[in-house]
Amino acid sequence: MSYICYVNNDKQTHNDMTILSTSGKKAVKITQDASGMFRAAHVSLSNTGLGTCEDLIQLKSYKTQKAAEKFAAQVLS
């Protein structure tokens, strides 16, 4: 499986991560909330001509970042 990962280590956004499929048509956005839970949002991406539109496919919560990344690997493969 191949994918592209972008990490934002800004203090305001904790450790936000976007994992893109190699086709660029799907992604999983992993964010951490104030309680320490990790949210994994599986989205489809489409180009509207004015920018990129994201449509939510599935949203899950995990206790660890590793579990959220495992989910991303499953849905993007």
Written account of the structure:
- With 77 residues, this protein is of the alpha+beta class.
- The chain has one domain (3-76).
- The protein is 16% helix and 52% strand.
- The protein has 1 helix and 5 strands.
- The chain has one helix at 65-76; strands at 3-8, 16-21, 26-32, 38-47, 52-62.
- Strand 2 and strand 3 form a beta hairpin.
- The termini are close together.
- The mean pLDDT is 86.
Brief synopsis:
Helices cover 16% and strands 52% of the residues. The protein is an alpha+beta fold. The protein has a 5-stranded antiparallel β-sheet with strand order 1-2-3-4-5, with helices on one face.
What tags apply to this protein structure?
about 80 residues; alpha+beta; 5-stranded antiparallel β-sheet; about 15% helix; globular
